[in-house]
Amino acid sequence: MKIDILSLFPEMFEGVLNSSILRKAQEKNAVQYRVTDFREFTENKHKKVDDYPYGGGAGMVLTPQPIFDAVESLKGDTNAPRIVLMCPQGEPLTQGKAEQLSKEEHLILVCGHYEGYDERIREHLATDEISIGDYVLTGGELAAMVVVDSVTRLLPGVLGNAESPERDSFSSGLLEHPHYTRPADFRGLKVPDVLLSGDHAKIQKWREEKSLNRTIERRPDLLSEEVRLMQENKENQ
Ligand code: ADE
Fold first, then answer.
1. Nearest atom of ligand 1 to the alpha carbon of 133
2. Alpha-carbon span 137 to 178, nearest angstrom
3. How far is ligand 1, taken at its centre, from the CA of residue 117, in Å?
4. Does residue 158 sit within a domain?
């Protein structure tokens, strides 16, 4: 997979793309990252990439020309890259969205700044708009890093079996069960007996229950209406 990132601050990506799993993913040729400063594409003699909003108001708006030209030049011979605008108005990033993007051949992530993008970028260039949460960042860079990370770890060969993404929180629709490792007794804090029992069926049942209870307590929004009703019925009995 190829992932292009368009940003006015390419230096922000150096540490993130060249550390840990993302670095290994490139070394294994599972992914190729390329970060491009779209200011290089502006035809404006002062290198400007933004301008005042028509109709007045505070803040500057990213102009279409440098972003259209940069995307068109990065498209290369991929027939239909996904062109993703990072913005707080976008579709919320979910595990499902990361899985969908991980099946693509080429992603182009665009990091906005200032008040936002000229609407023609949204309407006539972008294929997707993604938000990483209901808060406003100073720019799309951190959000793009989150997308790159969540997509890269799903690419074939990137994670070993032990870290297999199928067992992640959210892949099953539920949060993960608690984990424990040695020692069995840490300052008097004991590991639950069931995990030391060697009874795999019992352990599996315990994990499923913990996973469900944790999801009910912390993220009931993740549960389908059906599961929620089941739980309510159980509580009312
Ligand atoms: N740019 C600014 N805030 C953002 C957010 N929450 N998600 C994605 N891009 C953004």
1. 6
2. 32
3. 12
4. no
Residue 178 is among the residues annotated as catalytic for this protein: no
Same domain, 147 and 31: yes
The domain total for the chain is 2
Same domain (yes/no): 148, 180: no
Q: Which residues contact 231 (CB under 8 A, 6 or more apart)?
A: 216, 223
Q: Strand pairing of 189-190 and 185-186?
A: antiparallel
CA of 147 to the centre of ligand 1 (A): 11
Residue 115 is a catalytic residue = yes
Residue 227 sits in which domain range? 172-236
Nearest to 211 by CA among 176, 173, 169, 181: 176
From first to last of its 237 residues, what are the pLDDT tens digits of the chain?
999 999 999 999 999 999 999 999 999 999 999 999 999 999 999 999 999 999 999 999 999 999 999 999 999 888 899 999 999 999 999 999 999 999 999 999 999 988 899 999 999 999 999 999 999 999 999 999 999 999 999 999 999 876 677 767 787 789 999 999 999 999 999 999 999 999 999 999 999 999 999 999 999 999 976 576 667 777 777
**Residue 218: active-site member:** no
